[in-house]
Fold:
Amino acid sequence: MLRLWKKQDLKKKVQFVVFFFVSFFLFETLVMANTIYGVINADQVNFRSGPGTNHKTYQQLNTGLVVTVKSAYEVSGSGCAAGWINIYYNNQNGYVCKTYINIAGEKDSLNRPWTTPKESIIGGAIFTARGYISAGQNTSYLKKFNVSPNSLYTIYTHQYMANLSAPASESATSYTSYKNNGLLNLPLVFEIPIYENMPEETSHPTAGKQDYGQSNVTDAEFEKKLDEQGFPESYKKKLRLLHNSHPNWVFKSLKTGLQFNDAVANEKRVSSVNACSACYEQPLDQTEPGWYIANNQTVAYYLDPRNFIREERILMFEDLSYKEEYTASVVTSVLKGTFMDGVSILDHQAYADIFVEAGKLANVSPVYLASLARQESGTKLSNTTNGGRFTYKDQTYEGFYNFFNIGAYSSEANPALAGLVYASQGALKNAEGIYVGTIIPSDNDNNSGSEKPTEPVFNVATVVSQMNVKQKGSYIVNVNPGTKVDTLKKKTENGNVTFKNVSGQMMKDTDVLGTGCQIVYKNGTVHTIIVYGDLTGDGVVNSADLLRMRQYLLGQVKLSGANLESAKTNHGSGVNSADLLKLRQHLLGTSHIIQG
Structure:
């Protein structure tokens, strides 16, 4: 390009190039002055002299090790499609594959770790949109009952909650918020499912019939729209009443194409109730403490949309996609009287504006997001919204937010704190051993340039081999039923491993290891033990495990994580009748479950 320049411009061009490179050098110097740290996220990660598997390995790094990142830009090289990251550790400059290092300050696809309210709100909006709203489950009803032919997921699967009455409860909460803040006057859009061969009516076991509606036609134009939508008369008489009070509301039919009785049978397998003894299937079949399989009448009642086409429940059918009408002033009315009625100090932005921004970004109604945050977080600051320090399962965290309680599963010992741990995903430990949004190097990051000797690298794989067990992802297998803690502990050096039970308590040497128990290694790595056939986690394989597997296959109980893995007695990709047969044969002594 230089040869095209006019002679009189050459001097200026050269000055510009010099200025550019000097500026770039100064910029790089400033960036490197702010040291970036990363943490190794797997065991036996090769630390190489150059970017590629053709370069020699200095040593192998293990999970939890903090290193200095010289450059966060990926360098291409053989053996790592994600690219190579330049790091400095143990007085050596080298490279590790990007796949095996988490860099401080990096965000995942959900914007985690959530270290400010805005990050939590935007991340939660993305989670809700990606998993449900944009995937065809765009109403509270469809988030629970996945019956839409437009869903990206298999019918009846991928449901937001097991609670059968959740849409009714959510709609009641939303209605109160909408009513108190004048939002019922908005031009709301509702998508209401219709099934094939629906009964004339369904009723709650204790509430009885709810016969209401308007039989006579008072608005011919509205009636024409209902007919065009294909609404049956049993729907129309209820919609006419709503139209009288809210003429600007729009009702759309969602023709599921599903037989109503088939839908009831399928939803029964994935739903639970926790109140109303008349609602339970008999004999009682508990899915988790306090929750039971519902009987057919109860499932039919909550599945039937007609029972909820009334003002105080209709919001379960609201289309939750983003709408321009839901401005910051509208959202402010939802947040009135809460700690979110103002500015987020950390983000220097009004909460209402944050919800609108998040909704627009994720294509989710900001009014719904604000209502959901109000429902999940409450009106006052709490441990999920104040960024305070907390300890959960022997780890300490600080500075994380979760406005929607995502990841706060009811099976956790403390759901709210479990949700905050979910929000901290990708965070690193500081020098005090606390998970925070930014990282300060710990003592094991020997980058001082001194020649002092370093401790030998603790190798999890070596310890696993010494215990004569096998690693399978995050699980440890090849543990026979009845194995005691001391049996494994004595095979390795004292202090290299400790053991915790499913409740997170330290185990004694005489305790039996069962499915769900954890091995905690010296360097902080944790593996979960699997004893195939031990679905109940007591360390033995007996008739209780056979019953649990039978209930799972019938859809009466749910298994997940380690308990689901332990049910794969035939070592296939899923759990089916072959696994049940294998477990039965094991108990009869005609065959044995292979643990390795």
Remarks:
- The radius of gyration is 29 Å.
- Residues 1-34, 439-456 have pLDDT under 50 and may be disordered.
